[in-house]
# Entry
Amino acid sequence: MQNYYLAVDIGASGGRHILGSIYNGKLQLEEIYRFENGLTEKDGHLCWDLEILFLEIQKGMKKCKEAGKIPASMGVDTWGVDFVLLDKEDKVLGAAVGYRDKRTDGMDAEVYGIIEEKQLYNRTGIQKQIFNTIYQLMAVERTEPDILQRAASLLMIPDYFHFLLTGRKVQEYTNATTTQLVNPITKDWDYALLDKLGTKNEIFQKITMPGTSLGHLSREISREVGFDCEVVLPGTHDTASAVLAVPACDDDYVYISSGTWSLMGIERMEADCREESRLANFTNEGGYAYRFRYLKNIMGLWMIQSVRHELDDQYSFAELCSMAEKNSSFSSIVDVNDQVFLSPENMSQAIKDYLEGTGQKTPESVGELAACVYNSLAKCYGEAVEEIERLTGRTFKRIHIVGGGSNADYLNQLTADYTGKEVCAGPGEATALGNILAQMLKAGNFASITEARNCVYDSFGVRVFKNRKEGK
Ligand code: LRH
# Structure
């Protein structure tokens, strides 16, 4: 009998239930259910609707039952940094404010009034992103201190869902590191930092590794969905799951986990918390089996997703890519990591304003606008690779692009051109796949990460793109 493992993979714009299994030595994936997600405005803040998301999680589980494919285990992964606070009766306090909300404006200065920015990086190795949990907690502290006082626990979003599924509260390690409150040497909460910030230590859960079983579904949930299964922690930070699924058999590569964000970096066993690394804005996020994800957050496909949305979703991503390709001579470039693109009222306008402000030609068609976005992203990848090579003193042969964005062949080709490296694209389902691999590793289907990654390569292959630019 085939064993199924269920990944519930929730991103900023939607979630999926994917069942994974092994057949004749190859990995097989089956999408069981798909649902929408997004930030909605509530009382002046951009929030996630966790109640609806949890109903969707259960709906997808019921679909497994209907299909007669009961998973042996399941796990949930989501984006990083966001959390909920629960009171002592385990009721959510306040709203689940999302990371693109502006409540963190100015919170960096508040935090640096307590601990110097340099020192914070040195202690945590985490890149400054204004939406990191540390700045969000400061926003709660400054605007709703009563909520923090009443809080009995803090749970990151996937941990909250695991709690609702099993009744167990833990803090999964990879996602914990996105808070900017974890020490990369002890791999535990930086309690001295928490004390400095005045945050109650008791609200933080025990840090627990991917591959740990949380036991079985609670009786109520299993009655509701019609089956029981084990819940096994994946790398609950979606990027950690995606990196686990990179189909590489050596370490001579840089990866890009390409989705709403582009996370570009390498895996390594130790964190680099030097000042040089901070200035280049690299982060040391925790990965599966304590491998660090030394990477840079790049604005990613969010820009083109927003542009597409502003055009009433009338073009598919494939169409936008081909329109961009036809306008590839349009040479205006934006700095995709400029904060003006994080949460603008209107992305197309923000791009035009940026181009005007920097004295460049503004796009006159959708194709030119899309060309500007894709070229700007690929140029940023090119710069990031140079920085990685400079900071590590190594050179890398190829780039693995995984995740939904790896389906954009035009961007894959541009990435090869701007970085001068060979690009290996795929699999597109890396995040769900990485979630499943952690469960399969726990179940003993693979003896090692290398074996699991080889199996990803054998099962899905990669599409290769070569650099076309001279001098690169
Ligand atoms: C990608 C991601 C990224 C985080 C951001 C908040 O989905 O998890 O790694 O920085 O969302």
About this structure: The chain has a mean pLDDT of 97. Residues 11, 79-81, 99, 237-239, 259-261, 263, 297 surround 6-deoxy-beta-L-fructofuranose (CB under 6 Å).
